[in-house]
Amino acid sequence: MSNAVVNGLAGAGGGIIAQIITYPLQSVNTRQHTERVAKKGGRSLPPTGGTLVQILQVVRSEGWGGLYSGLKPSLLGTAASQGIYYYFYQVFKNKAVAIAVARKIKGRGDGTVGVLSWLVVAAIAGSLNVLLTNPIWVLVTRMQTHTQAERKIMEAKKEALLMEASESNFIGSTLQEKLAQLDATKPRPYTTLHAAREVYNEAGITGFWKGIIPTLIMVCNPSIQFMIYESSLKYQRAKRETNKQGLNNVTALEIFLLGALAKLGATVSTYPLLVVKSRLQAKQEIGGNILFRYSGTLDAIMKMIRFEGLSSFYKGMSTKIVQSVLAASVLFMVKEEIVKACVVLAGKCQKLNIVK
């Protein structure tokens, strides 16, 4: 089995485990991204409650299942994304290493891959991953924000009913009955198939690639992440070699910490694009007011600046930092352990074949 396939499978396995552990934080964070709050007096209003408060609100109103809405397609998306990304990343990494070695033989360079090469390798792998898996993440975003969107739609219906009542002099009891009926209405069951139909009915097949522009730009996130990770790992291994401790003695805890450092740097620098992407992929009725609906990436950016202020680009950032750093740390740690296990297993199989 090639190292590209091994890394692809290991990345998928690590991604699934990380996703299950951190999914409630991811679900709440997506809701934070898509919550529209107009600024007043020139300032954007702060979010209501912290992450823990919002988690408890979801549990109270929707049950524990509300925190895991969209988990199934999310796990599929994670497995596909991590598998595709790590496979192509390893393929292009192997080529970059081969080119570096060839340059050394010709007397150019020291035989190691430079920072720019790591960025290019990660960018190519990330772009292929985005183009192939974006439809899955559109569905996940829809499912994570469905209840939030339904609540906004219900609030709009109540406002319309109250306005109609004031204009046509409804009898008080009639108005109360209609309001009670709206309050008693529960959100429709919302499956992956429902989300797919909704996206297709709204925008056709191209709807599954909503948010593709900011997502492609966000390819620089894993590029930055892997640049920091590979550079730090290279430094740590060189340090081990200098101390004559061996090349493979980088511990799981050190991998965890290096993964956390890499993801933290990448998340802080690219977070505004993540917010724009989530808003484009969510159901547009979630905003209620047509001024908060977006026709494209530039329209979303301009309206967010105009109506909500620059702080809207950093909504839920603390939640995302905790979720993504924890997820990346678990992913890197699990992936490296799976790769090590595969190498050991391959070595044992080779010895058995030699004995035979």
Automatic annotation (TrEMBL):
GO terms for cellular component: membrane. It is a multi-pass membrane protein. InterPro entries: MCP_dom_sf, MCP_transmembrane, SLC25A32-like. The keyword Repeat applies. The chain crosses the membrane at residues 113-132, 208-229, 250-274. It comes from the Eukaryota. Keywords: Membrane, Repeat, Transmembrane, Transmembrane helix, Transport. Its main location: membrane. One of its GO terms (biological process) is transmembrane transport. Belongs to the mitochondrial carrier (TC 2.A.29) family. PANTHER family: MITOCHONDRIAL NICOTINAMIDE ADENINE DINUCLEOTIDE TRANSPORTER 1-RELATED-RELATED. This is Peroxisomal nicotinamide adenine dinucleotide carrier like. The lineage of its organism: Eukaryota, Viridiplantae, Streptophyta, Embryophyta, Tracheophyta.
